[in-house]
Design a protein that fits this description.
The complex is a heterodimer. By secondary structure, chain A is of the alpha+beta class. Chain A has two domains: 229 residues, no CATH class; 126 residues, no CATH class. In chain A, 30% of the residues lie in helices and 25% in strands. In chain B, α3 links the parallel β3 and β4. The chains are: A alpha+beta, B alpha/beta.
């Protein structure tokens, strides 16, 4: 792949080119004491000079000592909210005499351009693609949004306190799923973006943005940044034999320990970029002449989720947490041929009581009945 | 399908502030549709006209705090096909259930010039402690959209979409940043039932728990986390003892911290 360089001063041209081509820009911006994904217009909407400190159950916005545009880790939002909206009307229906007519939803107005997607997030998107548009049943809204969305990726310049993408082999360098990928380099007085092109669509857009071929020294500087990020992950998860281990851990005593801390509040599933479960609600108005069908994010931490005739299959918090973790790290592989976790760490940071999926796996391994001291667990 | 006769709707008040009834009047745009579908048979906040029972649907606001009300709710139940209780008073005893943690006789002797005139019960209790109820709509006050959803569902003979999960789900669905994780605010959201649309966190305040305990609340774990983050025991008790103080999971946990 040929590497290019876009100067910081020319990045605005990338944004204006995208806007000029009819894209709605969705990217990182400061809101409510966090860096969230929202609609942005210019480079000035980015969280310039801001970063974040993260730990289990804790996120704090912090000032940087420089003017980096993408110098933060992951925030609470993921691109899931754009591809698979939290709440979406699928269609409406009107009563007409003794029958009814279906009123279809209009298609979205403008295609989106994601600005600043990280490698783990691109992996999460490809996992959702597999579930929602590459199986026998295609979610038409999801597929339409995915097919028209342009992705500008950013390689991570630092690792967050709860990041473990290296363990999940999903980062920190973007290798797939982008039209253009940037590595932000702040090198003394210089500020530029090492740029890689992933698609012809990306190459076409760069025609309108000033750039030049990267020098070897610039390529090396960008690579050092990504390598340093990979070497400073906040968390790690030893995945060796994990699927088989979890299949044998159904009666592990540690599940009770997690359940005592778990609030069953569903935050982990809401912030997870791969969790894709939705429910469908039919609503009618008072007149009874108008009905709507809505799709909404659902969570395996609710009682309704596993409700069938006779009651909820997973009535206890323990059974819900066990199901969630086992699905993410084991059954997902049998179902979709990948783990359902990309190591983004959001479920750790945004759990109000700081439950840490990487630590729970360590504890489960340690407390597995019949465990041989040296043969499993982390080497 | 819609029957010829319009169903009769009655609204009943017990110990309460009237705020939940007013949520019904607050449905300004939908009020005309509502009176098109039901006959308002008894609703003192809206009309002096009273039509005799029985009633197809009764909305009951307020808790039971007097011997007289304890009898009256029995009559309301007898006269109602469906009895829906609305608001924290009716579902959990309300803010007036704070009396349940103290000696009411002592209050009465201090507050009233002639305590003998006061006939009151030791405890403020929810309607379901006295009669069977068909649905409990939470909130202090109830959410007007949920109230309309519930009435629409009942009129159409379908299941109401009133989730029992946590406020966190609503925060995340609307994209609100978690005030507990990002600011360290003690928030009742993880143990509180959704329904308000995550109002307070969207204004950068912790949830006050107006909608009462969610379906499987782990209040012990949440308050342990607050304590770990520096919240003092009396403040934990105060947070748990508000509009839903006597809801069992909140009551139990507040008593554990009330030394």
């Amino acid at each position: 792949m040929k590497s290019l360089v876009i100067e910081r001063t020319d990045l605005e041209k990338l944004f204006s080119t995208l806007v000029g081509r009819g894209y709605r820009l969705i990217g990182p911006t400061l809101r409510e004491a966090a860096i969230v994904y929202g609609e942005i217009k210019t480079v000035n909407d980015l969280p310039i000079g801001w970063t974040d400190g993260q730990a289990a159950g804790q996120y704090r916005l912090q000032r940087r000592g420089d003017a980096a545009l993408f110098g933060y880790n992951l925030g609470p939002h993921s691109w899931k909210k754009e591809n698979l909206p939290p709440s979406l009307r699928l269609f409406s229906a009107e009563r007409r005499d003794q029958s009814f007519v279906i009123i279809e939803e209009p298609a979205d107005e403008l295609p989106m351009a994601f600005i600043g997607a990280r490698s783990c997030e691109l992996h999460a998107i490809s996992i959702q693609d597999r579930v929602l548009m590459q199986g026998p049943f295609v979610d038409p809204t999801y597929a339409r949004r995915r097919n028209q969305t342009l992705v500008i990726a950013v390689n991570c310049g630092q690792a967050g306190g709860t990041c473990f993408c290296v363990s999940m082999k999903s980062g920190p360098q973007a290798t797939q799923g982008f039209d253009i990928a940037l590595t932000e380099v702040l090198d003394g007085h210089r500020h530029y973006f090492l740029t890689e092109v992933g698609t012809t669509r990306g190459a076409e857009i760069l025609n309108d943005v000033p750039h030049r071929a990267a020098r070897d020294v610039e390529k090396a500087a960008a690579q050092r940044i990504v390598d340093r990020t990979a070497a400073t992950m906040g968390r790690k998860l030893y995945t060796g034999g994990l699927k088989e281990f979890l299949y044998s851990a159904y009666e592990n005593p540690h599940w009770d320990d997690v359940a005592a801390r778990c609030l069953s509040c569903a935050n982990c599933t809401m912030v997870c970029p791969t969790c894709f479960c939705t429910t469908v609600e039919d609503v009618t108005d008072l007149s009874g002449a108008h009905a709507e069908r809505w799709q909404k994010w659902d969570s395996c931490f609710t009682a309704d989720f596993s409700y069938i005739h006779g009651g909820s299959v997973r009535s206890s918090t323990k059974s819900r947490y066990r199901q969630w973790l086992t699905h993410k790290l084991a059954t997902w592989m049998d179902q979709f041929s990948t783990p359902g976790c990309v190591g983004c760490g959001r479920c750790i940071t945004w759990c109000p009581t700081g439950i840490d999926i990487t630590q729970e796996v360590v504890s489960l391994r340690e407390r597995q009945p019949g465990r041989k001291e040296q043969s499993d667990g982390e080497p | 399908m819609v029957s010829k006769r319009k169903p009769k709707l009655a609204v009943w008040k017990f110990a309460s502030c009237d705020g939940c009834q007013l949520s019904l009047l607050d449905c300004e745009d939908e009020l005309l549709s509502l009176v098109g579908r039901v006959e308002i048979a008894n609703f003192a906040e809206a009309s002096r006209a009273v039509i005799r029972g029985p009633y197809d649907l009764s909305l009951v606001e307020g808790s039971i705090t007097t011997p007289h009300d304890a009898e009256r709710i029995q009559r309301v139940r007898r006269d109602s096909k469906r009895l829906i209780v609305i608001g924290a008073c009716a579902t959990a005893g309300g803010i007036q259930a704070l009396r349940n943690f103290q000696d009411v006789k002592e209050f009465v002797s201090i507050v009233y010039a002639t305590p003998d005139y006061i006939a009151t019960l030791d405890k403020s209790t929810p309607i379901a402690a006295h009669v069977p109820v068909d649905f409990e709509l939470r909130g202090c006050p109830v959410n007007k959209k949920q109230l309309l959803e519930l009435i629409s569902a009942l009129l159409s003979g379908r299941k109401p979409n009133i989730p029992a999960y946590s406020v966190c789900v609503e925060c995340k669905q609307r994209g609100t940043v978690c005030v507990m994780v990002a600011r360290g605010e003690p928030c009742m959201g993880p143990v509180t039932q959704a329904g308000c649309g995550a109002l307070c966190p969207s204004y950068v305040r912790g949830c006050y728990g107006c909608f009462g305990p969610m379906e499987n609340p782990n209040v012990e774990s949440l308050t342990a986390e607050w304590r770990h983050r520096g919240v003092q025991a009396p403040d934990v008790v105060r947070a748990l003892r508000s509009f839903n103080a006597y809801a069992e999971p909140f009551r139990r946990e507040s008593e554990a911290h009330d030394q």
